[in-house]
Amino acid sequence: MTSSQKIIGQSIAIEELRTLIEMVGPSESTVLILGDSGTGKELVARALHDSSTRAGGPFIPVNCGAIPRDLLESELFGHRKGSFTGAIADRKGRFELANKGTLFLDEIGDMPIDLQVKLLRVLQERQIDPVGSLLSIPIDVRVLAATHKDIVGLMEKSLFREDLYYRLNVMPIEIKTLSERVDDVPVLFEYFAKQHIVDGKKPIRLHPTSMQLFLDYSWPGNVRELANLVDRYSSLYPGQEVDLRNVIPSMVPPGIRALASWPQANAEQRPAPKAVTDYVSSSEPLGAELFAAISGASEAESLDRINDAQLNYEVEQTILLAQGGGAFPEEGLQLKQHLLDIECNLIRHALSNAGGNVSKTARMLNLQRTTLIEKINKHGLADSA
Q1: Residue 265 lies in a domain
Q2: DSSP class of residue 204?
Q3: Whether 144 contacts 33, CB under 8 Å
Q4: Do 42 and 164 reside in the same domain of the chain?
Q5: What are the pLDDT digits (tens) for 259-305?
Q6: Which among 29, 100, 200, 331 is least buried, having the fewest CB atoms inside 10 angstroms?
Q7: DSSP β-bridge partners for residue 33
């Protein structure tokens, strides 16, 4: 199997990506890999390295967004003993460790502007200056960079140097999101299912109705999210066919639960009818609404009206939250994927309550800080942070 064939998929986008890797890999050109989080940027970088003449050398990845700002320079370029507090010995940086090989700078968009200047000099002169050293060290490294951010937008805000962008963007490679290449979903599911076989049993399978939900889902976490779901269901249902209708709701992404609950779903996908009184309780706000919905209706008509009322109630509650009112229901939200404006308004309101503090906002929304930053950039809310 060639390095490009390790990129799993059958869509036209993946075929074109594999072809591009085979063309660009053997060159010495710097590559800028663009794509959302979870699309497999590091996998593409490794494939480029493996298909190059440097394949026998080291492949050194470094996440520029995961290393504290004051330590990143030392991580990249190394340091000399005594150059700062805690520098008890000489230490090689990632550039020096990657000599004769490939250095992969992931999330390059998170690199501080002052370090961008030093990186530009390294790319131009092919030598590094370890922190605390008076002597430069020549290096022979191919640089691959990647980001999920809008680099052009960062340049317009003076957060990314234009000269560095053009130095990195010699060979641009863009990875499509999983929702843009849904033909790859069944192939990826099968691939990950084989990877997560439990106790020698057969790989899990997906019920046709559930596979259709996977195909309709927007996959905000991309391939990484799909891989995690397959891992989850392989542990819960080893060797079995997985029907999402029988899976504990908390084990199903909210977006897929929302798709499964659409009123226009096929009749055979609905659960067996219950007595109307099983659905409602006049002691709850929704119960009163449902009683009003079924008044004077037949059993079949009542079930349809209950479905509609439940959906309307959930949407209204979500909108109320986005506008700063209401409380989160215990069972979570049935958020439709096309209501991205609700997510945007909710994040904006939380940012306002937190005084623009991203860390506090992330805690309020129960999100990882990096995930929130991605959503802030996606919705253009950087000015609110």
Answers
A1: no
A2: P
A3: yes
A4: yes
A5: 876 433 333 443 443 444 444 444 444 444 444 444 555 555 554 45
A6: 200
A7: 146, 173
Q: Each residue of 128-151: pLDDT tens digit?
A: 988 888 888 999 999 999 999 999
**Using only C-alpha atoms, what is the Rg of the chain?**
25
Tokens standing for residue 176: 């499509």
> Helix count (H) and strand count (E) of the chain?
16, 9
Amino acid at 255: G
> Token pair for residue 113?
């502007």
Regarding predicted confidence, which is higher, 127 or 353?
A: 127
SS (H, E, C) 226-258: HHHHHHHHHHHCCCCEECHHHCCHHHCCHHHHH
Only one residue has tokens 């004077």, namely: 296
Whether residue 306 lies inside any domain: the answer is yes
Contact 144, 167 (CB under 8 A): no
Token output for 26:
């053997």
Tokens at 187, concatenated: 């192939």
Edge-to-edge order in the sheet of strand 31-34: 59-63, 102-106, 142-147, 31-34, 171-174
Domain extent at residue 309: 270-334
- CATH number assigned to the domain comprising residue 90: 3.40.50.300
